[in-house]
Amino acid sequence: MTVCIIGLGLIGGSIGLELKTKRFADRIIGVEKNPEYAKIALERGLVDAISKLVDAI
After folding, report:
1. For residue 2, what pLDDT is reported?
2. Residue 4 pLDDT more than 90?
3. Where do the DSSP E strands lie in the chain?
4. Residue 36: what are its φ and ψ, rounded to 5°?
5. What whole-number distance in Å separates Cα of residue 52 and Cα of residue 22?
6. pLDDT (0 to 100) of residue 53
7. Which domain holds residue 48?
8. How confident is the model at residue 32 (pLDDT cuts 50, 70, 90)?
9. Residue 3 buriedness (CB in 10 A; 0-12 / 13-18 / 19+)
10. Nearest to 8 by CA among 54, 50, 55
11. Nearest to 16 by CA among 34, 1, 28, 32
12. What is the tally of structural domains in the chain?
């Protein structure tokens, strides 16, 4: 299953981390307007990829 998280701040990032920890999804795509937050989420392994909203949906 692929999950898309819109917004990778404190709440979205925490959800991504928990989904990965519990192995709920095979792939997690993050949508984030702020490039710095997107970079941090990828570096910390909170998501597998960053995408634009249109592409993620």
Report:
1. 93
2. yes
3. 2-6, 27-31, 49-50
4. -70, -45
5. 25
6. 93
7. 2-56
8. very high
9. middle
10. 50
11. 28
12. 1
Cα first-last separation, the chain: 14
CB contact at 8 A, 8 and 49: no
Question: Edge-to-edge strand order for the sheet containing 2-6?
Answer: 2-6, 27-31, 49-50
Q: pTM for the complete prediction?
A: 0.86
Arithmetic mean of pLDDT, 9-23: 92
What CATH number does residue 23 fall under? 3.40.50.720
Token readout for 13 is 């990032």
In whole numbers, what is the pLDDT of the chain averaged over residues? 93
- In whole angstroms, what is the distance from residue 17 CA to residue 9 CA? 12
